[in-house]
Every structure is written in structure tokens, then in C-alpha cells.
Amino acid sequence: MKDFTKYQGVIPAFYACYGDDGAVSPERVRALVRYLADKGVKGLYVGGSSGECIYQSVEERKLVLENVMAEAKGKLTVIAHVACNNTADSRELSAHAQEQGVDAIAAIPPIYFHLPDHAIARYWNDISDAAPDTDFIIYNIPQLAGVALSVPLLREMLKNPRVIGVKNSSMPVQDIQMWRDEGAIVFNGPDEQFVSGLAAGAIGGIGGTYAAMPELYLKAWDLFYSGQLEKARQVQNECCRIIYKMCSAHGNMYAVIKEILRRSGGPDIGSVRLPLAPLAEGDSPIVDQCVAMIREAAAKY
């Protein structure tokens, strides 16, 4: 039996870190790792949606992971998302991730063309084969990938001994129960249902807003596992209200989050990469409101 305790906890999805010139900044990558490690998170999910992976080259994604591992190896659990929209690049990132010593790799299905299950299974298994000593996690995010994980596809993938579970970003909590019933460990994806996901049996959470307010998710985790479910629900409600406020801005949510992080005393990690929309005129008051809401909630709980 494998020991999955290293995956239990709050795992922020790592943000893309750019310099003022828009290039990936190794220094800012390392600064964000140190900041989150000091907050007490369990691990980091690198190179996923929050990492703007589809807008970065293979070499840029390698550069990000190398600098994350320079700070995090031996201190934090690291899951590297390695999927590209072709098998060769995905395998290259997979092999590189294993060389860097990550705990697991993860992958969405190929996007744009809707492939049959047998083609998706081959894609994932080919990626896994390039990192034969590393755990593999399926990333189910049908609202963006356009393809939903099915029970038959999961059963096929679990024949691969390296496949341990699912990062589940579909909204139905029922999906977490289904994947668990098949023998997979599951990470809750939607931040708005972190506590609900834990109640459904998720081993931990991987989320795009965690790094903006890690104290709140860590508090919700502690309250849930100490049996204080009503207080955990209250903290979850605070997180949801903050997320709704973030999403009310005109700029991309990650542009908003990065500015929240900076104004909250975290590292400056730049803006987002086009075509994602940067902060727009009128977004600044929303950012300030979010900063205040996070501080008030953290002080309250």
C-alpha cells in the first residue's frame, strides 16, 4: 500500500511569475515558493491553469519547475502539471519533472479535438511512461478541457500502477465520491466547495485562489478535521464571498489575484500573459476590497 499522507492538505495552484518585461522570472518564482512555504501550505501544484501553462513554451515551463524545486524540494509536496496539446512535448515535460524530483505529475486530456476514451488513455499512459518512477494524477476539468472523465476511462487508467488519483475540478461533488469508489484518491478542485469536497472524501485541495488567502483555507482544513464543521462552513462562505468579488473585476481573475497578493504584502509576481486580460481601469477598488475582506476574515477566524 502506498502512503498518500504527503498529498493530504492545502496545495495552492502555483501562479505564473513574470518580470516587468513579461518573461518568466526565476527570482519571482522562488519568492512565491518561499512566501507560500512560510504560510504553512502542504505543497504546490505547478504548471496548471493558474500557471498559465497553455500560454508558455516547453522551455518556460521547465524553467518554472526548476526554480520551484530549487526552493521546495524536500520541504513541500510538488505536483507538476505536464500536459501539452501533443504527446511529444508532454512526454518531454514528464521526463523533466521526474528528473527534478517531483512527487507526482498530472495531465488534462488533449483539448480542442474531442478524442475517444481509448485515445485519451493512450495519451495519459504515454505521458506516464516517460516518468516511470513518478505518481500520475488525472486532471479532470471538463468545463475548460471540453472532455469529462468517465468511470470506464478511470477504470482503464487505474490499470496503470502509477495512476493514483484525480484532481477533480468538475462542480458536482458527486464526482469525488464516484472516483473514490473506484479506488482513486481525489483532490478537490473548485475552491467554492473546498469543505464540501473534504466531506465527500477528497484527500486534500488544489485551488487557484489558495495562494491569495492561504490562511483561510488552512483554517477551514483545521476546523473540518477538528470536527468544527459549522465554523469550517463559515470560513468557506467567507472564501466564496471573496471569490465572487474577485470575479466581479473586468480583468482576468489571476491578474486580480496577483495584485491582491502584492497589496497583501506578498511578492510582486507581475501580471498575466496576453491574451489574458490584465487589470482594467476600475479594478483597483475591487482589489482593495478583496484585500480588506481577506484580512477581516483572517482576523475573525
Please give a structural write-up.
By secondary structure, the protein is of the alpha/beta class. The chain is built from twelve helices and eight strands. An eight-stranded parallel β-sheet has the order 1-8-7-6-5-4-3-2. Helix 1 packs across helix 2 and helix 10 packs antiparallel against helix 12.
Unreliable runs: none
Structural class based on helices, strands and sheet pairing: alpha/beta
Strand order of the largest sheet: 1-8-7-6-5-4-3-2
How many helix segments? Answer: 12
Mean pLDDT: 97
> What's the story with the biggest beta sheet?
8 strands, parallel
- Estimate percent helicity: 40-55%
- Estimate what percentage of residues fall within beta strands: 5-15%
The termini sit apart by 37 Å
The SSE order reads: EHEHEHEHEHHEHEHEHHHH
Shape: globular
Rg, nearest Å? 18 Å
Instruction: Tally the beta strands.
Output: 8
List keywords for this structure.
single chain, 301 residues, alpha/beta, eight-stranded parallel sheet, 12% strand, globular
